[in-house]
Amino acid sequence: MARRRSNRGDLPLTADINITSLVDVAFTLLVVFIIIAPALQGGIEVQMPEADVAPVTSVDRPLIVSLTQNGTVYLEDTPMEIGEFRSAFPGVVEAGDRQQVYLRSDGRASVETFLQVMGIINTTGIAASVLAEEWISN
Predict the structure, then answer these.
(1) Where are the domains of the chain?
(2) Which residues of the chain have pLDDT under 50?
(3) Residue 115, CB half-sphere, CA atoms under 13 Å: how many?
(4) Using alpha carbons only, what angle is made at residue 137 by residues 133 and 138, rounded to the nearest 5 degrees?
């Protein structure tokens, strides 16, 4: 009796992994992260004036003070008027271990309010840096 040879035995066995679906998932996740990443940046939205300044040195955890166009001062994310800021800021500096303050000011804010905020910061003896648009993307 002659043994019949099957066609399956003639073809070599290959074990390839189909990575098309893996690449599709990876690109989908990449697009999702690209779209969501700008929304994850928190903070107060201000229109920063452009300036030529030296880069900010790295600080563990600076205190961020933001000044908006209408004169509202934000201590981190807490809005307050200039009078409230004048009374609250020294207590925040004394209570915390922050060694530096970053002042973000809207380019359309009044110079008078900016100087008042800068003066309040300087009276505490803490180092203050004014941030320019080079470091903060809106």
Answers:
(1) 8-40, 63-130
(2) 132-138
(3) 3
(4) 105
